[in-house]
Every structure is written in structure tokens, then in C-alpha cells.
Amino acid sequence: MASTTPAHRSDTHVPPSRYNFMVIVLTSILGLVGLTYIGAIIAFLLPRAGEGTKPVDIGKITSTGVTGGGITSTVGNFQAGVAGPFVYDSTGRGDAQGVFLVQTSGNPGSTSANDYIVLDQTCRHLGCPVAWTGSGSTGTFNCPCHGSVYSKTGQVQAGPAPAPLYKHNFSIDQNGDFICKGRMPS
Ligand code: FES
């Protein structure tokens, strides 16, 4: 009568040969190298801030503000040297982004890009949109969520925001049109 007792593991277990061991080691190494390349390719393909942006013509700069199709006077007029927020696709992927055009020097309506900076509307704390409150020649950007306050040039003056407002690349063309070109890295 045949025994029903299963063979002990040590009776059937075959230890991996040196060949199998080398195959496993080489496969693991190649796998790690492959993952590294895949990570590098993904990092290369993902757009960084501002990359992929097509320049967007916001409107024409005048002494009173920025004019153009779809720009209301509320948004386009300079108030203490700040106009906006103007919304445009800052990444080339359909990401609507509000920005302010801030005149920091020069005569009203100057068409020299050196006289301006362009600030992102997004608060650096948790991303709420800041609003400009300006009168006379001064004012601040205020966040309605947790009270962060930024100066006219985007520097943190109060609140939990850990960093200044982002700036955007821009130019002013020969017609005096204000062209947005994407967010700068922090
Ligand atoms: S999101 Fe602006 S202060 Fe918190």
C-alpha cells in the first residue's frame, strides 16, 4: 500500500544554481536601470512652470490701463499702478491663471518692460486668489483666506504666506501690447 505522507520539502527542494542566481541579479540590475531611464523620460516630458506657454497678447497699455477685447474697465484700469487680474493660459495646457501688471517706475503708460513686473494672483500659502487694494500711489495684495498681505512688488508683509508672489515672463511689443509668456520658476 502506497504511503499518503507528502514528501518532506527538503526531499524535493532544489537550491538555485549559480546560473539562476546570476540571472536574478542581472535582471534586477537591468530593471533598476530601466526604471531610472523611465523616470528621467517622464521628468523630461513633464512641463516645468511656464514651459509650453504660447505668448498671449493681453491688450494694449495706455496711460490709464490695459485695453483690448474682453477687458473691462474694472480689471484693465490702473489703480495705484496695478491693473488686472488678467487671465491667460500660463502653461499651454489650458491652465487659466490670473496675473497683475504692476508699474514700478516710469511715466504712466510707459511701454518699456523695465518699468513693470507681472505678478501671479495665487497666494503662496494655500493658493487662494489675492486681490489688489490700492489708492494714491500705494496699496497691497491681500489674501481673503488666511490674511496674508503682499507688497506692490509681491513681497510678503504679513500672514502665513511662506514666499513672495510668483512672477511671470512678459514683453511689450512695438504696438505697446502687453504679452504674457508664462510663470517664472520661484
Ligand atoms: S491661502 Fe492665502 S493666506 Fe492662506
Structural overview:
Residues 42-47 have low confidence and may be disordered. The strands form three sheets. The protein has a four-stranded antiparallel beta sheet with strand order 2-1-11-10. The chain has a four-stranded antiparallel beta sheet with strand order 6-7-8-9, with no helix packed on it. It is built from three helices and eleven strands. The N and C termini lie far apart (82 Å). It has two domains: 9-45; 56-183, Rieske [2Fe-2S] iron-sulphur domain (Rieske Iron-sulfur Protein, 3-layer Sandwich), CATH 2.102.10. By secondary structure, the chain is α+β, with helices and mostly antiparallel strands. FE2/S2 (inorganic) cluster binds at residues 123, 125-128, 143, 145-148, 159-161.
Brief summary of the model shown:
The chain is built from three helices and eleven strands. With 186 residues, it is of the alpha+beta class.
Name a few traits of the molecule:
4-stranded antiparallel β-sheet; 11 strands; 186 residues; 2 domains; Rieske Iron-sulfur Protein
Find the CATH superfamily of the largest domain: Rieske [2Fe-2S] iron-sulphur domain
Q: Tell me, briefly, the overall form.
A: elongated
Distance between termini? Answer: 82 Å
Rounded to the nearest angstrom, the radius of gyration is 29 Å
In DSSP terms (H or I, runs of 4 or more residues), the helix count works out at 3
The chain-level structural class is: alpha+beta
Mean model confidence by pLDDT: 85
Largest sheet: 4 strands, antiparallel
Low-confidence stretches: 42-47
In the CATH classification, which architecture of the largest domain applies? Answer: 3-layer Sandwich
Bound ions, cofactors and other small molecules, one mention each: FE2/S2 (inorganic) cluster
How many domains? The number is 2
Question: Which fold does the CATH topology of the largest domain refer to?
Answer: Rieske Iron-sulfur Protein
Spatial strand arrangement across the major sheet: 2-1-11-10
**SSE sequence, one letter per element:** HHEEHEEEEEEEEE
CATH class of the largest domain: Mainly Beta
Secondary structure: helix percent: 10-25%
Strand runs, count = 11
